[in-house]
Design a protein that fits this description.
By secondary structure, this protein is α/β, with parallel strands linked by helices. Helices cover 39% and strands 14% of the residues. Strand 11, helix 12 and strand 12 form a beta-alpha-beta unit. Residues 276-430 form the Helicase C-terminal domain.
Amino acid sequence: MSQDRAAVRERAEAVLRRLAGEHARLREDQWRAIEALVVDRRRVLCVQRTGWGKSAVYFVATALLRERDRAAAGATPSGAPAGGGTPGDTVGPTVIVSPLLALMRNQVESAARAGIRARTINSANLDEWDEITTEIHAGTVDVLLISPERLNNPDFRDGVLPKLAATTGLLVVDEAHCVSDWGHDFRPDYRRLRTFLGNLPTGTPVLATTATANARVTADVAEQLGTELTVESGSGSAGGSAGQRADVLVLRGSLDRESLRLGVLDLPSPAHRLAWLADHLDRLPGSGIVYTLTVAAAGEAAEFLRSRGYPVAAYTGQSDDADRRAAEQDLLDNKIKALIATSALGMGFDKPDLGFVVHLGAPPSPIAYYQQVGRAGRAVEHAEVLLLPGAEDAAIWRYFASLAFPAEEQVRAVLAALHTDRPLSTQALEPLVDLRRARLELMLKVLDVDGAVRRVRGGWLATGEPWVYDEARLRRVAAARTAEQQAMREYAATPGCRMRYLRECLDDAGATDCGRCDRCAEPLFGTEVSPAALSAAETFLGRPGVEVPPKKLWPTGMDAVGVPLKGRIAPAEQALAGRAVGRLSDLGWGGRLRELVGPEAADGPVPDDVTAAVVEVLKAWARGDDPWPRRPVAVVAAGSRSRARLVGSLAERIATVGRLPLLGQLPPPASPSGAARGNSAQRVRALHDAFTVPDDLAAALAGLDGPVLLVDDLIDSGWTMTLLARALRRAGAPDVLPLALAVAG
């Protein structure tokens, strides 16, 4: 197939001008990627910094391929094949696998500017699937964006994917580092791309893009795309011809971001960090993002900044989709100063004029950090990037690390519980295995990719295929994560250039000092905070009290393990809404509470400051917007094997302050099995008959005319407190008000 490369480039430049404006010109590596895709039908991996223009590559390539397709069908207005194609050499739509709905929305709008019709198939538009599929078959869709999770949705995988793969003109894998479990944001569903790739017609071009891949991740991603690497840089022709190459062209560029000014501010406490934001947020240019490590911290920071007069919005994975969309649009329109966000906004948000990114707490990896700060400064001369690390960061890293791939015995238990001919849903599996929902689902996705299980309508099947637990690789991945955490600590403390440090973490061979960061130049921001802002932050974070909603439904599938509990918890056996001093992930009370109930905490009497906080919680509970229905008339302590002194002394002091009788302590379970951090079904299975109410306590409960205050140290899943309350209600307590020092999460 003869190709006029100069003519193709001329058309590519014309499409780019439609996309990005009359003054836009292709970068040399952009052209080399387009040439490899359109002319040579190769597979390409672009590792380029955020803002380099990776989306321009696949939109321009799409336009050229679609023009050639129309020309082959005789539909090109000029009557000539735009890309040098021949009649009959037709292609279907570009398929873009994209991780976030936010990115999809941005991409659809960008495509329209280039005259490209883009549609999406995702969980938010199920009612449009049939219509979109018809449009694809009719050839009216140029670009189809799908999430990686769609690749293993049974209906999509079996009914749409085979036909789609057979007609795909270009496959784009965006944020391709997610393919690799060495990457900072591994997503098992991305591994389904192997199946998609295997079903593509010979010579179908493939483009993978990422801004955050070191050498190891690059090699791993390229392995998923082809059989060998051809790493190139600089100018020149990509060469090759369609259908004759199995290698992957890797185009790595400089990862420097000339517009970013990096800095680190070492502040002594969460209150100081919030106070610094309150004092300096209006000095940061334009609008931006403030990242936090937890959902709770995002909510607290947003609430505090609003109280100081700033227009901000919280953005987390727990926010409603409509709220996230509204928050995104408000930031795009500069109606708010900042989004206070978790890593749910880590990828896929495109605001070229974003003026700053601040982190309240350090991500666990320099690579993840580079990914997030790359949101800023894409179309402005200067953007401020500031890290405000905290002493609590390491504890949060450890928590997320605990959610890694389970131990072999847990995996084998899941495989043993599955059938080869009768699917089990995730909910039905939970009573049979000791894994929480999110971790179980992640593990099943990995096993699906490995061929040990298969997702079908109605749940999961075992395939019966042999499967090997790759313990050595998992150990290496865990070691890599530990090394990344240490590298993040070193980034905060490095005496050298911060941008150079990040680029070297990403194996950027051309890394040099940036001349802009707070190590290379005079820092623009100091650590000073005003007394007024610090006082306000300390008061805000010092407020104790979070509501603990009661459980109202038993976990599903309990009858499968011989536990006769299902459906709604009987109202006569429910607890009322409870209270706790705070969450372990709170910016304010989180650190203090972890000292008392964390995994390394020693048992001892409740400290005076914590007792005072509990008293404040009780006062607010009695007089607040949602007060208890009746004042408690007695106190009961939950039995504890690990913190008997802490819980006992807390109950005693509450009884003394409230002038209430302390009726005693419920004995802890006879077996310690109930302490395991399993899923809800496993918790109920272990504890449903584990609590007995002594006769003397039962007699005292029978004579009460008001609620019992049930005191414990930590509410984790909430099932221990639920079953303790059930035991007390069945023994005669009129009502139960749960009270704990801390709530996990």
